[in-house]
Design goal:
The protein is mainly beta and 153 residues long. The protein has one helix at residues 2-15; strands spanning 20-29, 34-43, 51-62, 70-93, 97-102, 105-110, 116-142, 145-152.
Length: 153
């Protein structure tokens, strides 16, 4: 009985789409007494439609220059496999922003003084794909200083 329950429990865990891979990178911006952080999160196993969720974020923080002129999150997907290509489904981004997306990536940019920009969508792959990864570059501009950092999964 314990063995059966263990198998059912393992199957239940594997069938959930909550497994994800993520990465975050924070760099300091000494001129602005602040930091810029890039976050990337992508679902590890595809749902029944062959796609999985992803989210990218750019986050700026400063104790003096609190409102950047702009902040942007820019992502690029890559696929590892034989004849692998990306299957992208558009999603939504942070409020008051704008962006551009295509099959291999895109960006979302806020110019309203917000300190964060994010985008969430779905991505899958065609061909014999072993892995779909994502690289996210968080960048911005404040008080005459450009800044950026990149995280990758």
């Amino acid at each position: 009985m314990k063995k059966v329950l263990g198998i059912i429990f393992c199957f239940a865990l594997l069938s959930q789409s909550v497994f994800a891979t993520s990465n975050s990178r924070t760099d300091s911006i000494p001129q602005l007494y602040g930091t810029i952080r890039s976050d990337v999160w992508i679902q590890a196993y595809a749902d029944s439609d062959g796609t999985g969720l992803f989210q990218v974020t750019a986050d700026y923080d400063s104790s003096i220059y609190t409102r950047p002129s702009w902040i942007k999150t820019k992502w690029d997907f890559y696929a590892i496999g034989i004849s692998a290509s990306i299957n992208f489904k558009a999603g939504s981004g942070s409020i008051s922003g704008y962006g551009y997306t295509n099959s291999s990536g895109g960006y979302w940019k806020n110019t309203n003084g917000a300190s964060t920009a994010w985008y969430r969508g779905r991505v899958g792959a065609n061909g014999l794909t072993i892995y779909v990864g994502c690289e996210n570059t968080a960048s911005g501009y404040a008080a005459g200083v450009p800044f950026s950092t990149t995280a990758r999964v």
